[in-house]
Amino acid sequence: MRVVCAVILVFEAVVIGLFIPVAISLEGMAPTTAASLWGGMAAVALVLSGLQKRRWAHYAAWALQAAFLFTSFMVSGAMLIAVVFVSLWVTGVILGRRTDEMKAAHAARAEAEAAAQRGEDGGGSVTTAPSRQTR
């Protein structure tokens, strides 16, 4: 799950960064305001993508999704993009969890099969082949 979420955050950082020139040119927003708002969010998305192995970073990325959705009201047409990325995030979390569960089940099944094979061999005892007798 964490890998899928990290990839989504990297792509999201690029799109968030592209909101800066759109906000400046179409909405007439001050460059410093646009750069600090969406540039900061893009930087946070990149940092969080690298830290997805940590639980707190995953929850912080959820907060970033909410902030991204909230700030998209400031730029016309950005709401659709924000909804798409939040949907990708939710889908990535759901499918990532399912994938993690399937990997864990597969690993447990492989371990059980390996344990069963060790049990059939008599616990690792060495068997010798019958010797040939010459006449």
Automatic annotation (TrEMBL):
Pfam families on file: DUF4233 (PF14017)
Entry annotated with the keyword Plastid = no
Superkingdom of the source species: Bacteria
So where does this one cross the membrane? 7-26, 32-51, 63-90
Q: From start to end residue, where is composition biased (Polar residues)?
A: 126-135
Keywords from UniProt, A to Z, are: Membrane, Transmembrane, Transmembrane helix
Region labeled Disordered — which residues?
Answer: 113-135
User: Does Membrane appear among the keywords?
Assistant: yes
Q: What is this protein called?
A: DUF4233 domain-containing protein
* Species this chain originates from: Nocardiopsis codii
UniProt lineage:
Bacteria, Bacillati, Actinomycetota, Actinomycetes, Streptosporangiales
